[in-house]
Specification:
heterodimer; A: about 500 residues; mainly alpha; B: about 180 residues; alpha+beta; Alpha-Beta Plaits; 4-stranded antiparallel beta sheet; 4 strands
C-alpha cells in the first residue's frame, strides 16, 4: 500500500545520545559490603558522638516531656500560655508542626515507590522512622490539650456515660481518625518493610537473647520467593493505601481551620497548601538528620549526593508551591472584597506579629530559592543551613496561622497579644529531645537503610543482567535495531 | 548411638547470581516440582513467572477488608448520629444529607481496615510467623539474607528422589548441594 510508506515512522532531527543511568550505589559495592556496612551501624560500638547526642536528648526528653507533662497534669492546663481567645496557642502549633514533619517519610516510602523512583531505597527507612517518631511527638499535644487528659478517651468512638456519641460531623473528630490511622498504617508499613532486614541481622547474630529477639521480630523470614511474591504485593498495596492517606491527613488537619468561620482560616486553599507545606518541612527534617548520620556512619556510598540533590529539588518545588499559596492567600483576601479577611491579613503583615510573618516568608519562600543553583545543592553546609531555615520557617507558618488569627478574632474586647508560657516552651523543647532520642535509639537497634531494597537496585540484581554483558551500552543496541527496522520497513514498501 | 531420629527435609543448592537462580528456577519448574522455593536476599523480578507462581490473592482480601472498613464507618457514623441519638450541633441537621460529613471517617476506616488486612493477610499467606524452620538447620542457609541465592526442593514433593533431585540440581548449576535434615 502506497499510503503505508508515507506513514512509516521516520525519525526527524539529529540522533540523540542515550544517557547512561546514574548509579544509585557508588563504587560498585557488593551485596556483602552493603549488608556489612548497614548492619555495622548497629552491631559496632556506637561512636562517641552518639552518646554525646543521646544523653542530652534523653535528659531533655525526660525533663521536658516527662517533667513538663507531670507539672501540667498535676496543676492544670492553665500553666500553658493559652487564653480564652488564643485557646489553641503553642500546643496546636506544635501538633501541626510535628504532624507535618512526618509527611516526608510517607511520601518517600509510598508515592516515590508508586512512581518507581528507585533512589528512595537509601532513605526510606530512616524517613519512615522519622514519621513514626514525629507523629508520637505530635500526639502528645492534642491529647493533653483536651484539658483533663484522663478524659481523652472521650475522643474514641464509644458513647460516654450520658450515652452521647461523638460528633462525627466535626473536623476535630475527623482529625482523631486521620492521625490515628496515619500512625497505625505508617507503623505497619515501617515494620513490614523491616522484616527481611531484621532477618538479616538475626542471621548475623551469635546465639543468645539478641538473636532470639531479632528472630521473633523477623517472624521466621526465610527470603523464599513464595514469601517475596506475597510480600511485594503487600508492599505495593500499602504504598497504594498510604498515598491517599498521606494526602488526606494534612488535608483533615487543615479542615480544623478551613471549616471554621474565622477570617484567615476559612479558605479552600488550605488542604493543598498544608500538604505541600508538610512535605516541604518533612524533607527539610530528613536532610537535617540524614546529612550528619551519613557522615558519622560512613554511608556516603549508599546515600549519595544524588539523593541529597533530589531532596533539595523537592524542597525547592514544594517551597515554591508554599510561596505561591502565601501570595494567593493575600490576593484572594484582597480580591474577595471581604473586609474581615482583608483586615486579618493586614494584621498579619503590619500587626505586632509581623516579625513572625516575615520570618516565615524568608525561611520558607526566599531561602529555598538558592537551590536553583546546582553548586548550592552540592554544598552540604548550604543544604544543611537551608534545611534548618525550613524547619524554623514551617514552625512559624503554623504560629502565624494559629496565633495571629486567634489573637484578633471577631470581638475587639478579646484582642490580646499572645505569648507562650515557660511550660509551653519546656514541652516543645522536650518533644525535640524525645524525637532525637527515639531516632538515635532507632540507629542503635534497627537497620537504618533498607538492606534488601538497596541490593535490589544494583544492576546485577536484574535476573537478565548476564544477558546484557556482551553489549554494555543498551542504548546503542536499541538505537541500531530501531534504525534497521526503519530501513527494513522502507525496503519492503 | 544417639536416639534422635532425623527426617530429610530436602535439598538445598546454591546458585551464583540472580540470573543463575532465575534460569535454574525455570528448569526446576519444567521438571514438574511443586514443593520447592527460591531463596534470595531481595525480591527478584520475574522469578514468579520462572517458578510458575500465580499472582498473589492478597489484593482480593484487602478489597474485602477495605469494604468492611467503609461499611463499619458508615454504620458507626450514620447509626449513632442519625438513628440512635440525633444530636444537633451548631444547627447542622442530622438526616440523610449529613452523609457527606461522614466521608472523611469512612475514608480513614477504609484505609485502616485495609492496612490491617494487608498485614494479617500477608502473614497468613506467607505462613508466618513461625519460630523455627528445618532450613535453619543448614550451615549455609543464613547467607540467604546476605548475598547467597538458594533453591530448596522438599522431600515431600512426589517427584523427589535422593539421587535424581541431586543430579538435577547439579545439572542446572547448583553448588554446595546439601541434604537438609530436621529432627523428628
Amino acid at each position: 500500500m502506497a499510503t503505508a510508506t508515507e506513514n512509516a515512522p521516520t525519525r526527524q532531527g539529529p540522533k540523540l545520545p542515550v544517557l547512561k543511568r546514574e548509579k544509585l550505589i557508588l563504587n560498585g559495592r557488593s551485596y556483602h559490603w552493603i549488608t556489612d556496612r548497614i548492619c555495622g551501624v548497629l552491631e559496632n560500638r556506637q561512636p562517641f558522638l552518639w552518646w554525646l547526642l543521646f544523653i542530652p536528648s534523653a535528659l531533655i526528653a525526660a525533663v521536658g516531656v516527662g517533667g513538663g507533662l507531670f507539672h501540667l497534669v498535676s496543676t492544670g492546663v492553665g500553666v500553658w500560655g493559652n487564653t480564652n481567645r488564643a485557646m489553641w496557642g503553642w500546643p496546636i502549633v506544635n501538633f501541626v508542626f510535628w504532624i507535618g514533619i512526618g509527611h516526608a517519610g510517607t511520601l518517600i516510602s509510598a508515592i516515590l515507590f508508586l512512581t518507581r523512583q528507585n533512589w528512595r531505597t537509601s532513605i526510606n527507612r530512616a524517613a519512615e522512622a522519622m514519621t513514626i517518631f514525629a507523629v508520637m511527638c505530635a500526639g502528645i499535644f492534642p491529647a493533653f490539650h483536651v484539658g483533663r487528659v484522663w478524659m481523652a478517651w472521650f475522643l474514641a468512638p464509644i458513647p460516654n456515660s450520658n450515652a452521647i456519641w461523638q460528633n462525627f460531623k466535626s473536623p476535630l473528630l475527623w482529625d482523631v481518625f486521620a492521625v490515628s490511622t496515619y500512625f497505625t498504617i505508617s507503623l505497619i508499613f515501617w515494620y513490614l518493610g523491616m522484616v527481611p532486614d531484621l532477618a538479616t541481622i538475626r542471621d548475623r547474630c551469635k546465639p543468645g537473647l539478641r538473636k532470639m529477639l531479632y528472630g521473633l521480630f523477623s517472624l521466621g523470614w526465610r527470603g523464599g520467593n513464595r514469601q517475596w511474591s506475597h510480600y511485594e504485593m503487600a508492599y505495593l498495596l500499602l504504598a497504594a493505601l498510604s498515598t491517599p492517606l498521606v494526602l488526606s491527613v494534612h488535608s483533615v488537619v487543615s479542615f480544623d481551620f478551613a471549616t471554621s468561620v474565622v477570617p484567615g482560616w476559612h479558605t479552600t486553599i488550605f488542604p493543598p497548601y498544608f500538604v505541600a507545606g508538610a512535605i516541604f518541612g518533612g524533607f527539610a527534617m530528613v536532610l537535617t538528620i540524614m546529612i550528619p548520620a551519613r557522615f558519622i556512619y560512613g554511608l556516603q556510598d549508599l546515600i549519595t549526593m544524588k539523593h541529597i540533590d533530589n531532596m533539595a529539588k523537592i524542597i525547592l518545588l514544594t517551597g515554591t508551591i508554599v510561596g505561591y499559596a502565601y501570595l494567593m492567600e493575600l490576593f484572594v483576601a484582597f480580591y474577595s472584597g471581604a473586609k474581615y479577611e482583608m483586615e486579618a491579613f493586614k494584621y498579619r503583615i503590619t500587626g505586632p506579629y509581623n516579625w513572625a510573618y516575615f520570618t516565615m516568608m524568608f525561611c520558607n519562600v526566599i531561602a529555598p530559592q538558592i537551590f536553583w543553583l546546582k553548586s548550592m545543592r552540592e554544598n552540604l553546609w548550604i543544604v544543611m543551613i537551608v534545611a534548618m531555615f525550613v524547619n524554623i520557617g514551617m514552625w512559624f507558618e503554623r504560629f502565624v496561622i494559629i496565633v495571629t488569627t486567634l489573637a484578633r478574632m471577631w470581638l475587639p474586647g478579646d484582642w490580646k497579644y499572645y505569648s507562650p508560657s515557660g511550660q509551653d516552651q519546656l514541652l516543645f523543647v522536650g518533644t525535640i529531645g524525645m524525637f532525637l532520642m527515639l531516632f538515635l535509639l532507632f540507629l542503635r537497634f534497627l537497620p537504618c537503610i533498607n538492606i534488601a531494597e538497596v541490593k535490589w537496585t544494583l544492576l546485577e540484581s536484574d535476573p537478565h543482567f548476564d544477558d546484557h554483558e556482551d553489549h554494555p551500552d543498551d542504548g546503542v543496541v536499541v538505537e541500531a535495531a530501531y534504525q534497521q527496522e526503519l530501513q527494513e520497513s522502507a525496503g519492503k514498501a | 548411638m544417639s536416639t534422635t531420629r532425623k527426617r530429610v527435609y530436602g535439598y538445598l543448592a546454591e546458585f551464583k547470581s540472580a540470573s543463575a537462580l532465575y534460569k535454574a528456577a525455570a528448569k526446576v519448574r519444567d521438571a514438574g516440582f511443586r514443593k520447592w522455593d527460591c531463596h534470595s536476599p531481595y525480591p527478584i523480578h520475574g522469578l514468579d513467572g520462572a517458578m510458575g507462581l500465580k499472582r498473589s490473592i492478597l489484593p482480593w482480601l484487602v478489597f474485602c477488608g477495605g469494604a468492611t472498613g467503609t461499611a463499619t464507618a458508615f454504620a458507626l457514623a450514620y447509626g449513632t448520629q442519625v438513628l440512635l441519638y440525633p444530636t444537633i450541633v451548631q444547627a447542622k441537621p442530622v438526616n440523610v444529607f449529613s452523609v457527606p460529613a461522614f466521608f472523611p471517617i469512612m475514608f480513614e476506616l477504609t484505609i485502616l481496615f485495609s492496612g490491617f488486612t494487608t498485614l494479617f493477610g500477608l502473614l497468613a499467606l506467607m505462613k508466618l510467623p513461625r519460630l523455627n524452620h528445618p532450613l535453619f538447620a543448614s550451615k549455609q542457609f543464613h547467607r540467604t539474607t546476605d548475598d547467597a541465592f538458594f533453591i530448596a526442593i522438599e522431600a515431600r514433593d512426589p517427584k523427589f528422589s535422593p539421587e535424581g533431585t541431586r543430579a538435577l540440581l547439579e545439572e542446572i548449576g547448583g553448588t554446595s548441594i546439601e541434604l537438609v535434615e530436621e529432627e523428628d
